[in-house]
Amino acid sequence: MTDYRPINLAAKLGLIHDHWSPRVVAEMNDYQFKLVKIQGDFIWHSHADTDETFIVLDGQLRIDFRDGAVHLSAGELFIVPKGVEHKPYAESEVQLMLIEPRGVLNTGEEGGERTAQNDVWI
């Protein structure tokens, strides 16, 4: 039987207590909708095989590129094209939704201590 209940994003965000740890809230075909709280600087990375969508739900996000930056506020989105090196930054806490294919690591091919466990649902 189909579950016809909506997903409450605010309630799901309330379950997230760590920064830089995306949590899956929904899946459509092979794409996952992930919520994450971030603060501070991330690492330079890219995703060779997929675009990555950033939707700011709360706060101010800057995504740095080697040749510039984009600034996003709540209610705005930006799609980083596949293969483009980028580095998210949030001076204060930002709440985001990410949309990307199942199995994409948050640090791309860079790895390291900021790599979050993948496919964790809340």
TrEMBL record:
This is Mannose-6-phosphate isomerase, cupin superfamily. Pfam families: Cupin_2. InterPro entries: Cupin_2 (IPR013096), PKS_Associated_Protein (IPR052044), RmlC-like_jellyroll (IPR014710), RmlC_Cupin_sf (IPR011051). The keyword Cytoplasm does not apply. It comes from the Bacteria. SUPFAM superfamilies: RmlC-like cupins. GO terms for molecular function: isomerase activity. CDD domains: cupin_YdbB-like (cd02226). Signal peptide: none annotated. Residues 39-99 form the Cupin type-2 domain. It comes from Pseudomonas indica. Keywords: Isomerase.
